[in-house]
Amino acid sequence: MSDAVFRVAGLSVLGALALELAPDSPASCDVLPQREAGVLAMTIARDLASFAPDAASLECVMVGAHYDAVELLRPGWPIHRELHELAARAPPAMKPTAGGRVIAFGAHEGQLPGTLAPATQHAGGPLRLLPFLLAGDAAVIARIGDLCERELMERGMAGAQTALIAQDGFGLRIEHARYLTVHDLCALIGVQYEHAGLAPLWPLLETALLSPLREARLDAPPEPLVHYSEGEARIAMFSPDAWRNRYAPTDDGDSARLERTFAHFEARQRQYASVLQAHGVPVLFMHCDDAAAQAL
């Protein structure tokens, strides 16, 4: 298991119900009231127990809200961590299910508890995610976690009742509803980023998500130079002359074309910074020449 699955995840399975929306899906509410969140949580727990019967003996914790992938895929899994911490303070028994219990967090007067409110700036995407975690006996979690990592993405379609409750509750038009682990979600978003032209950045971002205590370096001209270390990404900023010395030392082309290429490079730096920051990775821009860049 990766470094970033916070220590409690040794006793937890972290996942999400992924809602793939129709292109004409209307604007929706992003949170459910407590009662509706509880109803949806019960159907999610039944789906997971159908996939892995032992899950019925575990604690299933979820929130009645949907998020963008960048909100879930952040170092330390902060939304899942918040679910765990809130569940630890929950009353002793909210609806048991075959030895386990279901804990759902919904909105009261429009507000979710803790820091669970979805970010408005990330609303409106075609893939929305309802996070959940399973917690309990370590041996059971180990078995279910292994099964989920091997088969949940292929076999984990949500039940029709679950999809209908989510669709009606949130006012969405859902084409597909399926369960994923956070590692499945990483793989899915990695493919999407590849298609979006962000493949060079993904290994560094994946390190920040899955092994945040490690280091990663993107040093592949003509891409920006980025070094991830100690929980932050440092991006090298070059003057036009320093950029040319590093990236185009033998280019004798006209100055106008070089200026356009440098402007494209700076735009790429801003794009990388935006993606990293959306995933909760702090970004530090460091002005340096080519020599200093080697020590970045």
Multimeric status of the protein: single chain
Per DSSP, the total helix count is: 10
Number of domains: 2
How many individual β-strands?
10
Average pLDDT confidence is: 90
State Rg.
22 Å
As laid out across the biggest beta sheet, the strand order is 3-4-2-5-1-6
Structural overview:
With 296 residues, the chain is α+β, with helices and mostly antiparallel strands. The chain has 2 domains: 7-195, no CATH class; 202-293, no CATH class. The protein contains 10 helices and 10 strands. The strands form 2 sheets. Strands 3-4-2-5-1-6 form a 6-stranded mixed sheet, with helices on both faces. It has a 4-stranded mixed sheet with strand order 7-8-9-10, covered by helices on one side. Helix 1 (34-51) packs antiparallel against helix 5 (160-170).
Keywords, please?
single chain; 296 residues; alpha+beta; 2 domains; six-stranded mixed sheet; four-stranded mixed sheet; 10 strands
Short description:
This protein has 296 residues and is of the alpha+beta class. It is 41% helix and 20% strand. The longest helix is centred in the C-terminal third of the chain and has 24 residues, at 255-278.
List the topology elements:
Layout: E1 12-21, H1 34-51, E2 59-63, H2 69-72, H3 78-88, E3 96-97, E4 100-105, E5 127-135, H4 138-155, H5 160-170, E6 174-181, H6 182-195, H7 202-210, E7 216-218, E8 226-229, E9 232-237, H8 240-247, H9 255-278, E10 283-287, H10 290-293
Parallel strand pairs: 2-4, 9-10
Antiparallel strand pairs: 1-5, 1-6, 2-5, 3-4, 7-8, 8-9
Helix pairs in contact: 1-5
